[in-house]
Amino acid sequence: xxxxxxxxxxxxxxxxxxxxxxxxxxxxxxxxxxxxxxxxxxxxxxxxxxxxxxxxxxxxxxxxxxxxxxxxxxxxxxxxxxxxxxxxxxxxxxxxxxxxxxxxxxxxxxxxxxxxxxxxxxxxxxxxxxxxxxxxxxxxxxxxxxxxxxxxxxxx
Length: 156
What we know:
This protein is elongated. By secondary structure, it is mainly alpha-helical. The termini are far apart. The chain contains seven helices and no strands. The chain folds into two domains: about 10-40, no CATH class; about 45-145, no CATH class. About 0% of the residues are buried.
């Protein structure tokens, strides 16, 4: 049986580049052998070892003095991609980010009348924790493990 002839290439797509021509041919024939988006490094998921080491690398790094915290995180978003996203979530909460009514309606679930003694920092941390859990940035098992740890005294 004779090989199938290649489909004609439109004038505006004619090229001598073999890889580009082969990609066009595959697409025309309906055979998607190569996805060009697989080669984009920004879209590749991080490797499992990279995620586990991210927090360890951050905690072991030297403390740097900076006046621009958001700029610091932006400059290190490739080093700490997950922590970068979490840091932006936490640091970019403006005082008036939503309607007071909306905050109050969500807040009643977080701060019922029996728990109204929580500090503003604790409330903010719990709201971020909820959002990060919904986004899959942290796992429920990890939260439960941390919740079972003994209390740590912090001096102000």
